[in-house]
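Alpha-2-macroglobulin, pasting as requested.
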Amino acid sequence: MKLADNGIADASVLSAGKSDMVAAPGRESKPLVDLSKVTARKNLNETAFFFPQLTSDSNGVVRMVFTMPEALTQWKFMGFAHDKEMRSGFLEGKTVTAKDLMVQPNAPRFLREGDVLEFSVKVLNQTTNRQAGKVRLTFNQALNDKSADQLLGNTKPELDFDIPAKESRSYSWRIKVPDDIGFLSYKAVGSTGTVSDGEEGYLPVLSRRILVTESLPLPIRGPATKKFDFAKLEKSGSSDTLRHQSLTVQMVSNPSWYAVMALPYLMEFPHECSEQTFNRFYANALARNIANSDPRIRRVFDQWKGTPALESPLEKNQDLKSVSIEETPWLRQAESESQARRNVGILFDENRLNDETASVLQKLQQMQLSDGLWPWFPGGRGDEYITLYITTGFGRLRHLGLDVNTGVAVRSLNRLDGWIDEQYREILKHDHPNDNHLSTTVAFYLYGRSFFLKDRPVNAVHQEAVNYFLGQARKYWLEMGNRQSQGHLAIALLRFGDNKTPKDIMKSIKEHSVSNEEMGMFWRDTELSWWWYRAPIETQALMIEAFDEVMQDAKTVEDCKVWLLKQKQTEDWKTTKATADAVYALLLRGTNLLASDALVEVSLGGKTIKPEKVEAGTGFYEQKFAGAEVKPKMGEIVVKKIDTGVAWGSVHWQYLEDISKVTPHEGTPLKLNKTLFVKRNTARGPVLEPLKGGVNVGDELVVRIELRTDRDMEYVHMKDQRGSGLEPVNVLSQYKYQDGLAYYESTRDTASHFFIDYLPKGVYVFEYSTRVAQRGQYQSGIAEIQCMYAPEFNSHSQSYGITVK
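Structure tokens follow.
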């Protein structure tokens, strides 16, 4: 590099070959740079050298020679220099590293046993002369480095080439991948006798026999005996390639204990707002009542310590899941839930219960404002809704029969009554007070106020306003538009002395319900909503209370409890409010549902399972059978429950089968259907045509996956395998949003993964594109899905054969 008089640098030499910065030959005998003083800084795609001093030769030229890395690409050199007079110069140069003859194999990401593939190699002539020679492709088994050409059918590994100047040609070898060949390495070499090039690499080979997990849920409501047929297991003897791996039976005899396991979540929630401070009091008060209701219940807590009972469902059953929890975005959630469950032992410690209950109650007293309202957060203004929530919570605790100090709640009633009176006076200012002026908050007030009618009746000053809204409730309850508020009105009207309207409300609500044996009673309007009065868990909890108190309908109450518990099977109750309401509803008829220790009996093929180890409380047990013990007749399953209530279990069958023989699994509420389409460009625009027959290299193959689920689920993982000759078009992993569903799509070498935090019931369609990269015949692979929270809910599709012309 030479500085001219005008300070502009001149790029005189930029070459490759030697490893050190040296003087040009014949100029000076000593090095131009003291290398010990040179510093270098490496970034992701560049290296910068800093020279404290450069000495030029007699012509004022500094020559630097670098050894280039082994990469065939374009390189950019940039130099900046200045002298003692601060004259500076900059130069920039580009060079391309290439060879006269280059060999570029087009290797697939992987192969699968049974694939027929054309492995192509491109030979490039970079010279200005015609080049002729031979190109050779060979394969070795990576384990022992022995030749695999004969096993792959590569009988003619060497081909002749004759390539004009500045052109390229592609050459192909057709190989067929046998079973049990193992990991492969390949080497492609081209030579003209004077110049040559080569490249080698590794090629993973996947087994054609894949591990398939199929599950059959075993829901039951007792007392009852129920038969299940695992049809595919019963017919498994008809396949000569199927190999049993294991059969696992799991049963939860008393899932009501999962509500108790949720209580520490209320205790541990970190925020210091009024609502969650009250929920800590709520959890401690419930825990003390539960622990003292039956000595056997307290013993269960002690037996849980140090056992898998306190692990999150996300961390359990790793051998039955399609992906380990460490490979999902939910590892932190799993660890958090497990830690919360382990706090059950702390929660039910008697000394801690008494101290914590007293201290939290004192904190609530300090947070309450002088007018009786509570702010959302300390220092804020009084909030009527938050106050209603806390006051109603105290009423619920007393309604459950708990001995709690309700002084702070009673103190808030005068201000709440004043608030409802203000609403009434504001309405009177309008010309149409007989119109509908009900609101969800008014309905919540009437419900919450009704808990305290006996010991704190409404003051005569405010009675006119309360009577007005009670009249509005009788007249306009049907126009409320949401079940939770209608339930609030039904309970409130009954407690205020109306015996007719509440029954009409509950009859109407029941007419819109849906019932089935497994899910119990539910409503189809339980979609996720941002509005508190449409929250599905809280609404279902209120339905339990309303049917219990208004209708005294024990069967309907139990049916509604079944739905609430079934949600806990596939979901985590996400909020303190949902958890508190659900626990309240499940314990509404006392804690006797926790006292039962009767186990659900499961028989396979006429043989009753005798569990060796049973989890305390939940009555969970598991029995595993090794592959050699699994017989087709074990698909005949009988489940017997002798006590009342809901229970659930599952049978998980794992087997190895040729991927081309795997048939769709439809034994669970998840349904999965995979289809392939070829995208064609027509005069009308791009058109998707169903895959029929063969496709060509370069075609865009669109994968469509249709997913159906009849219930809400959380932490759902879906995986779609790809064929060995296909390349994904979208290689970037990212969050996506479509049709109201949010999910994370991750593209890997052999499959695309979809991680869904929350999957509402419904039908969903996923599509993504792949590009046909190699000729041959191979399998598309199956699509599979599983609820990580409840692995018994899984499904998979079949695999399709792809022929590329």
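Note for the archive: The chain has six domains: 2-96, 101-206, 256-367, 513-591, 599-661, 662-805.
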